[in-house]
Amino acid sequence: MSSSQPPKITTILSQPFGENTYILGIPGRSDCVVVDPGFEPDKIFAELDTQNLVPAAILNTHGHSDHIAGNEAMKQRWPDCPLVIGHGDAHKLTDPRANLSAMFGGQLISPTADVMLAEGDTYESAGMAFRVLETPGHSAGHIVFVLKSDEPTLLIGGDMLFRQGIGRTDFPDGDPAAMVHSIRTKLYTLPDSTVVYPGHGPETTIGYEKENNPFVPAT
């Protein structure tokens, strides 16, 4: 089912938190995956319609509100599309305090997970095979998705590693020590050429961050 052909990746910026939603699709196919649908799902719908794509899965890197806000709208339009998240953050989908929406005066509730993933799992959808790494630090149940195509390896990194930055660790289940450990032992062991698609800000590479990230230097 998986393909070595690299996917086309479209980034949709969702306000008010500047969150990156990603659409990944293998050229020539009509299915795709949508990662971390944010607060402006109409933008996602418009892009999917423009590209004539139908989502085969909704992937959540973690359960914070800016990364799950579009889940409900996605499921309403495509009710059979599985919602996928790491097992450790699945409870956040339906808990406004845990998903931090209550902190900002909201009561966001997402549909429940159809699939819960753990370290070492491979999730296949739309012709792509995503390897799952558990990366606690920003949230206790955060996961990232590693996609190996011909070249380079791609990392859908959520709120772990940004260009010369890292995700916040001051939320209730954040852990600064775990964040550094996850980045050094999970992310920095990927090839230097790995392209990182983060939850906020521009893409980067593992090699660049090992050399230039002021928060988590390689050594």
Automatic annotation (TrEMBL):
Q: Which domain of life is it from?
A: Bacteria
Spell out the InterPro entries in the cross-references: MBL_Glyoxalase_II, Metallo-B-lactamas, RibonucZ/Hydroxyglut_hydro
The protein's required cofactor(s) are namely: Zn(2+)
Give every Metallo-beta-lactamase domain span.
18-200
Q: Name one GO molecular function term.
A: metal ion binding
| Annotated keywords | Hydrolase, Metal-binding, Zinc
Presence of the UniProt keyword Isomerase in the record: no
TM spans, by residue? none
What Gene3D superfamilies does the record tag this protein with?
Answer: Ribonuclease Z/Hydroxyacylglutathione hydrolase-like (3.60.15.10)
Q: Does the keyword Metal-binding apply?
A: yes
Q: Which Pfam families match?
A: Lactamase_B
PANTHER family per the UniProt record, alphabetical? HYDROXYACYLGLUTATHIONE HYDROLASE GLOC
Q: What is the name listed in the Swiss-Prot or TrEMBL entry for this protein?
A: MBL fold metallo-hydrolase
